[in-house]
Amino acid sequence: MVETMDLGELKALINSLLTEVQRLKARVHELETENTELKARLAQNSGNSSKPPSSDGLTKKFLIKPALPKQAGKKPGGQPGHPGKTLHFVEQPDVVHTHHPTQCQRCGLPFQGKGQLVARRQVFDLPQPRLWVEEHQIIARQCACGCVQTGEFPPGLAAPVQYGPRIEAQSVLLNVDYRVPLAKIRQFWADLTGYAYNPATLVSVQTALDAQLVPIEQQIKAQLTQAAVCHFDETGVRVGGKLQWLHVASNAAYTHLFIHPNRGQEGLLSAQSIFGDCLNWTVHDCWSSYFKAGKGRHALCGAHLLRELTALIEQGSGWAKTMHSYLLEAYKASRHGPLRAPEQAHWRQCYEQLCGQADEEELPPLVFFKVDGRTGRTKRSKGRNLLDRLVRHQEAVLAFAFEPGVPFTNNQAERDLRPVKVKQRVSGCFRTESGAAVYARIAGFISTMRKNCRNVVDELTNVLSGSFQWAT
């Protein structure tokens, strides 16, 4: 057939075949890219992505290394300088039991006198629990003029019999902080004291506590807004069968939590959020909404970047391995304080060189064409996307090494969010939005009290009884 074709027809055939070869090559490249992405998705775990360790399974989770290597040479247990807290002898025990011999083992005569103390041991235990009942009585008195006047009950005593603020505070703590379901709390008090605490009563107590915590929450938000460094993060929660987002703003002393239907700018700029009011350092991940909504200076979480780089290293990326080592070395160099100006220039130059190396190594964006030949969508690899973020947000990536007080990771916010994930695993989802909002406000208060080394039960009791005082 080819022998009978003239030169023009042969050229047309060759051009047609070349076009088909180019199309097939583009298709092969597209399939190879898709295959690589699917393999990378199957290989995701808590060490190379944002997936939680609980998703690794029993066969993997013991093999995953932490994002930051542990400091070498540290012995297990409490480290030097750790305050620690163990049992010590008390001078005035509640009960003293004396154990003495009654008669001599040699002659059988009874002992005379008190004897001499030679050893002592103390046992720390709880007394037999029971509810402490206080009765309030109203007394009527008659004046000489004939007027009869009665006393008044203290505020909060509305029913003939009711629970006091201390058992209410402990029930709230069991439900919110210890993630104990309402039915289990009822059974707990029944087993402990013989009185079954009604779950409906606890719901009413939490609703009242939520209203009392509003001005306290405003003070927490004000402290976080003025803080030099504030951490932000969010996590998905199921509320009434729908996806909602629990947002956190926190530092080492304060925690603010709130529920919002949106994860992005609507949530970050809502009335509950303080992100739009923070003008200092805000530490967060690479979620683009943070850069669009915030007014403060941005610092990116190094642990997130290390996990993304680890995923690329597992796919054979050379520049990712070098950048991974660079970030760890910068972390070690700045562990005891920010780098000095001459050192900053050196580290910045190395960073830009690594980004240049990565730009040469990473494949350019893949352009897909439509059937009519027009340019369609552009496909970028995960490596290219990460590189673009490293270049675009260079100051935010290196803030931990150059700025005082800026941490390398966003672990503070992640630790403050972790309890709600445990609660959902134990107690399931939130049934109503109002219930989720109540949980968030109470959980933020409890976390703040713990960070300030204040007794949580005492402070919850003080709030419920109207006697809470904010420490200055």
What can you tell me about this protein's structure?
The structure is a single chain. With 472 residues, the chain is an alpha/beta fold. It has a domain at 302-409. It is built from 16 helices and 9 strands. It has helices at residues 7-42, 165-176, 182-193, 199-212, 214-226, 265-268, 288-293, 302-314, 318-333, 341-361, 382-392, 394-397, 399-402, 411-427, 433-451, 456-465, and strands at 140-142, 148-150, 229-239, 242-250, 255-260, 281-284, 297-300, 366-369, 375-379. The protein has a 5-stranded mixed sheet. Strands 1-2 form a two-stranded antiparallel ribbon. It is elongated and about 130 Å long. The model has no long low-confidence stretch (mean pLDDT 87).
Summarize the structure.
The protein has 472 residues and is α/β, with parallel strands linked by helices. It is built from 16 helices and 9 strands.
Give the topology, please.
Blueprint: H1 7-42, E1 140-142, E2 148-150, H2 165-176, H3 182-193, H4 199-212, H5 214-226, E3 229-239, E4 242-250, E5 255-260, H6 265-268, E6 281-284, H7 288-293, E7 297-300, H8 302-314, H9 318-333, H10 341-361, E8 366-369, E9 375-379, H11 382-392, H12 394-397, H13 399-402, H14 411-427, H15 433-451, H16 456-465
Parallel strand pairs: 3-6, 6-7
Antiparallel strand pairs: 1-2, 3-4, 4-5, 8-9
